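Weekly structure sync, notes
Attendees: PL (lead), two postdocs, one rotation student
Agenda item 3: pending single-chain targets
PL asked that the sequence for the first pending target be pasted directly into the notes so everyone works from the same version. It is reproduced below exactly as submitted, 207 residues in total.
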Amino acid sequence: MSLKSFLIAVAAAATLGGCINTNVSYSEILREDQTFNWNVTQINVNVPRSLTTTDRNGQAPNVDIIWIEEGPGDTYLQVQRIFEEGVALGAGRLDASLKGGRSVRLEVEVAQFHTLTRRARSNIGGIHNVDFYIQAFDANTGEALSPRSFIESDQKASGGARARQEDAAGYTMRVAIVERIAGVVATWLAVAGDDAVLPSHRILIGR
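Predicted structure, written out during the meeting:
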């Protein structure tokens, strides 16, 4: 089954069985008249080393970060790259070539990235708890363009046979989480559902 066909099947199942996503909350959503001329040119993501993590393969260890899909390595850096990709994808819906050109820097701080352990992924699944702070600044002057907002973007995560089917189709946990981050960031920027052509400008990631 192709990824496209699989996603269509997932959408159909969601329609019949209820929404596949869970809590999404924003401390504040920006207005389109605030962001219509923004051109996000830089994204800085901070994953504080003070956040706790573990390799323990329990059902749901009580830590801030759980991420097993990319294997051994710097978990904090892996999470940072996931956020960089997701935020850039969501911010990419701001098409400065059509709407204007105020250069904007987004500062993101991860508060929680609690995804599934191998045990949870292999049986009943669970919830990806992905929470973060985000704030926009003028990239040239440093002026704050928005309050520092907290976004909670929980997402249902499959387990067992369904998870194996998703993985085989290419719809991995990483793909799902990147898409989720992109969607909630686009909503925060008041551009969700925007069908404009993606901008061609380069977004600088990191300091």
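Discussion points:
- Helices lie at 3-17, 32-35, 75-91, 96-99, 118-122, 160-168, 173-188.
- Residues 1-21, 193-202 have pLDDT under 50 and may be disordered.
Action: rotation student to compare against the earlier draft before next sync.
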